[in-house]
Amino acid sequence: MKHTTSFLAALAVGALTATVAASETELTVYTAVEAEDLARYAETFNQSYPDIKINWVRDSTGIITAKLLAERDNPQADVVWGLAATSLLLLKSEGMLEPYAPAGVENLDPKFVDGDNPPSWVGMDAWVAAVCYNTVEAEKAGLKPPTSWQDLTDPMYKDQVIMPNPNSSGTGFLDVSSWLQLFGEEGGWQYMDALHENIARYTHSGSKPCKLAAAGEIPIGISFAFRGAKSKADGAPLEIIVPSEGVGWDMEATAIVAGTANLEAAQKLVDFSVTKEANMMYNTGYAVVAYPGIAKPVEHFPEGLLDAMIDNDFEFAANNRAAILKEWQSRYDGKSEAK
Amino acid sequence: MNSISTDPGTLPAGPDIKPKLSRDDMLMRGSMMVIALYLIVTLALPLYTMLSKSFSTYRVEPSQYEFQVSDEAGVFDGTILSGGELNRQMKVFADADLVTGSDGRLPVTGFFPDFNFRSPVMYQIRNTTNAGRFLIGSTLKEGTDWVELDSNTFRRVQMRPVQSRGMGNFVSYFSTPALFNSIKNSLWISVVSTIVTVTLAFWFAYALNRSCMRYKGVFRLIAMAPILVPSLLPGIALVYLFGNQGMLKELLFGASIYGPIGIVIGSVFFTFPHAFLIISTALAISDARLYEAAASLRSTPWRTFWTVTIPGARYGLISAAFVVFNLVITDFGLPKVIGGQFNVLAVDIYKQVIGQQNFEMGAVVSVVLVIPAILAFAIDRMVQSKQVALLSARSVPYQASPNPKADRIFLIYCSLVGLFIVGLLAVCQFAALIKFWPYDLSLSLKNYDFNKMDGGGWGSYFNSIKLAFLTAVIGTTVVFFGAYLVEKSNGFKLGRSVFQMFAMLPMAIPGMVLGLSYIFFFNNPSNPLNGIYGTMAILVICTVTHFYTVSHLTAVTALKQMDKEFESVSASLKQPTMKLFARVTVPVCLPAVLDISIYLFVNAMTTVSAVVFLYSPKTTLASIAVLNMDDAGDIAPAAAMGMMIFYTNAAARIIHLIASKGILTRTQAWRSR
């Protein structure tokens, strides 16, 4: 099929498309994993399965989710490897995932595996919200480090905070959904109203607030812990703050897209994704992984992060996603610049 | 019969005489049809699909569900409750709540005021039609069978919307203040940028055409430089100059560069060459006799300026204004990078489609965006058609006379504008080489390690070159051949004017809108052309179509300069037209052909708006990589990639210059006697 279509295309516009090498299987893998990790993931995978080539499609969580949903009737992806569980629940509810129990799934922490049997998705690791705090810039601006989410609504932080837009960023969405769970529906929106007064702007991606904080563009970036740890390792004057009320988190997970032409290779990839080896690979950046007992502490990771993780209700997050985003947009999107 | 008897003066109508179509005419009409068909498939049909998509709404229909409620013991008495009836009685959801996006969902427990998830009451639910859908947790239920659930599971039931048609999307668009506000924002920044750019470009062009200033060639080159970079690059430079860690931050006196200020400055940068080119052409030709008349009437220079110079250039000025307005209102890269919370229409489309999966709303915003774009385009066309020859056979070309004082002022002015343009580019290059701004200022090539960033790495750079090359070759062929057929074929007036209209249309369609309409049209499994979705082919087609108009106009202008006699002569010599085309027309028009190809090449390297919806993992592009790296916060690598595009385009221009010089001396010798 792929060959005939690309042949037609070639006829139409003149040999533009590259032909697929016949000897190895190619998998189109959609992911929201940080770009700099992708080569390492593919390399580790290829040590076990050298004849499967991974073609990555990477973007922010919201965008990958949007792409998958848009391609609902004509899926382009074979596997989703490293996407928020809330997003995978959405895809599952559209019947877009192929249930499959990978070999060795029983070794994983059951919290990290879809409840159905066979499961539609299996978890990899947890990514946890955190606040990146640039000590140098904060000192210049005369700020005190915040210790809680509520602190961030203090007027002294006016225009000193950047957070991701939950519409496009998975990190942004887990922040919003965690506040709604922590402070209750009404309290959550009240909190965001107050926080909105201090927000300089909302970014499109979840790692950008932390990178901006690292570059001194802003003293405080609401982002996730892993990003902060990386920027700190790069030499940025960052403090990673874990707010005392608890932090939102989401799981990165793997699933096979229903209707894939390369089911066998896709299953191999999912098999690999639950191995101890793969989980050790996730551990390089993520302190919590699905495989129990192997996680080592991550350099520059803030202490007490794991205990601060809230009891997240993924189904609440997935089923209320559309309503939450609609509400969020009507409250905050573009409101600040109304002229 | 009657008519003949009453009016003997007229002769009975004879049979219609039509010239017989020669094989040549058939061939030309056939080819014209093929290219017209190309434009229909790549432009008209996708746009139509998009328009129809904007009327496609999603609505939850409570009446599509039926419920049964048991007593405390779990026994059902057989009463069937309709969801629509319950919603009317309980007033749970207003009409506006029921209209949602394609992924909307609404809970059902509100229909039952006594509902408690701990109660032993059982519930049954079913769809009344096969089209109905609901969720239990995350599991989709279709079909009309009853499903029995306990209270705790029943609270997890969510109704899903079904597709219908109507104005619902437009209503919800205009009732969302954040979205509606964007219209105002877009118009505001476009008007301000237009005024600033046209004013700056006018004096720049005036200095180059009407003064005896030195270094004109250098300034002309500098003025064209912004055309070689993506529109988001000035945004990145502005972040380094005026951001919170900016080198010249103090110049803003506390105002934030993220917002209208940044958008306007950046827009001036990237639209400057377009305005400059148009105004410069308008100022280049003028009749010296008018100035002599003004001088002999003892008019002051100021008065001469307003009564001779400005009226002479008015069409150029108006045209430049509308072109700039159109470029700014449809650009999305720049407001994306530097716009902060200042929403504009083009970014709204991106946010709706990419961020929120709301393709229908994206289509609605597209329709809204097309209106000002088409208006500006139509006015521009009208003005241009009025542009009659100012230069008659008796005109004397105006020659500037030296005026040391004025020339010095012009030189200072042009240097300042030049410094602005070169400065922004230099800042980007500088930023790309800094290790970790602002904390570690040592030089490094770390930011060129694109493979570790978003956007597809170095592969995307080579993809861009491939795209630019293919666009230049294929686009030039299609466009020039199409223009030739329209210009030189005989008869077939209707077909030709329809073709002309199609060829003009792409200019009025914003790139974002074109790209979005391509998703709707090509990513549809029932479309036989579905196979090209996600390939390089769709990028080439989209880019050729996007930049069709200017290329077409260039080709038509060149062809108009060739006498129709060539065709007559070749016909009387019984030579096929295609031979004439290959042996005479193409060589004569070679300068235009080369111009079209470099225009397409450069634009294919820098375009973001149309292709941002269409690239795939194998066809990531450098310009999109700039956008994605900036999105992810990797601003320095984004600047590095942007400068790679600049150098590539500059190199292509130089090669083009050398090649055309070489070819022209060989083929255009006839031009000089």
TrEMBL record, chain A:
Keywords associated with the record: Signal
Entry-linked InterPro entries: ABC_2-AEP-bd (IPR017663), Ferric-bd (IPR026045)
Annotated CDD domains: PBP2_Fbp_like_1 (cd13544)
KW ATP-binding (keyword) present: no
One BP term from GO: thiamine transport
Transmembrane parts of this sequence: none
GO molecular function: thiamine binding; thiamine pyrophosphate binding
Presence of keyword Coiled coil: no
GO CC terms, sorted: outer membrane-bounded periplasmic space
Span of the signal peptide: 1-22
Domain of life according to the entry: Bacteria
Name of the protein described by the UniProt record: Putative 2-aminoethylphosphonate ABC transporter substrate-binding protein
Organism: Ruegeria sp. PrR005
TrEMBL record, chain B:
Subcellular location: Cell membrane
Membrane spanning residue stretches: 27-48, 187-206, 218-241, 261-285, 305-329, 361-379, 410-434, 467-486, 498-520, 532-559, 635-659
UniProt KW keywords: Membrane, Transmembrane, Transmembrane helix, Transport
Span of domain ABC transmembrane type-1: 183-380, 461-656
UniProt main location, coarse: membrane
UniProt keyword Repeat present: no
Keyword Membrane: yes
Single GO cellular component term: plasma membrane
Membrane topology: Multi-pass membrane protein
GO biological process terms on file: transmembrane transport
SUPFAM superfamilies assigned to the protein according to its UniProt record, in alphabetical order: MetI-like
CDD domains in the cross-refs: TM_PBP2 (cd06261)
Annotated family: Belongs to the binding-protein-dependent transport system permease family.
UniProt-recorded name of the protein: Putative 2-aminoethylphosphonate ABC transporter permease subunit
Classification of source organism: Bacteria, Pseudomonadati, Pseudomonadota, Alphaproteobacteria, Rhodobacterales
